[in-house]
Amino acid sequence: MPELTPTAALVPVRVWDLPTRLFHWLLALAVAGSVISAKIGGAAMAWHFRFGYVVLTLIVFRVLWGLVGGRWSRFASFIYAPSTLWHYLRYLRGQSPARETLDVGHSPTGALSVFALLAIVAVQLGTGLVADDEIANQGPLIRYVSGETSLLATSWHKTWGQWLVLGLVALHITAIAFYFFKKRINLVGPMVSGDKQLPASTPASTDGVTQRLLATVVLVLCLGLAWWVSKQAGF
């Protein structure tokens, strides 16, 4: 379990490696750009597709990085048992004593947020890749699905899908504000610098040249996939 007791003096410990931090901020920009370009419509739809390919690259990258990335970026470091989540929720609501541990990576609720965002954004992306607005725009993979499937995907993409994405983003921002003002925990700072104030004995994430070269290789593979998907349009 990625928690350590704060019994020693706290020092800066690298928790979020550079690839994870870049993913976080680039995904925020790409999703924002995708939503804005879709709302504008018309010629801006070309940018909606471009942002979509960026999101595809980033989502696939994060899934792979969740297997081979820095210690606290790996999915294995923030998969919690239901009992742990329940205890943490009681703590947040003030129904249990203050915690005697410090979260290193994602807290139980933070982990839920990460998995929910990845899943919902992936579904929204997937439905967009096979959508058809029956006017001028079709997803690049539409030829791989039936007309009925494309119709259902389009309906989801334009209604429930976009509202779920926006809702989760709003919830994410609300949680950041809650932790900052209520719990006096800054979640944004570590995602910028990569470091958290933790006991010196805390295992740090690997974030050197070798790790970043590995991230580059993974990114190139993801870019290749996004390029292939984009080339399916018009076939």
Keywords:
235 residues, mainly alpha, Fumarate Reductase Cytochrome B subunit, two-stranded antiparallel ribbon, two-stranded antiparallel sheet, 8 helices, 4 strands, 6% strand, globular
Notes on the protein architecture:
There is one protein chain. The chain has a single domain (3-230), classed as Transmembrane di-heme cytochromes, Chain C (Fumarate Reductase Cytochrome B subunit, Up-down Bundle), CATH 1.20.950.20. Helix content is 60%, strand content 6%. The protein contains eight helices and four strands, in the order E-E-H-H-H-E-H-H-H-H-E-H. The relative contact order is 0.19. The mean pLDDT is 91.
CATH architecture: Up-down Bundle
Number of helices: 8
Record field, number of beta strands? 4
Largest sheet: 2 strands, antiparallel
Helix content: 55-70%
Identify low-pLDDT runs. Answer: none
The CATH class is: Mainly Alpha
**Rounded mean pLDDT score:** 91
β-strand amount: 5-15%
Count of domains: 1
SSE-based structural type: mainly alpha
Tertiary shape? globular
Structural topology:
Elements: E1 3-4, E2 10-14, H1 18-40, H2 45-68, H3 82-92, E3 102-103, H4 108-129, H5 147-158, H6 160-181, H7 188-193, E4 195-199, H8 209-230
Antiparallel strand pairs: 1-3, 2-4
Helix pairs in contact: 1-2, 2-4, 2-8, 4-5, 4-6
Short description:
With 235 residues, the protein is mostly helical.
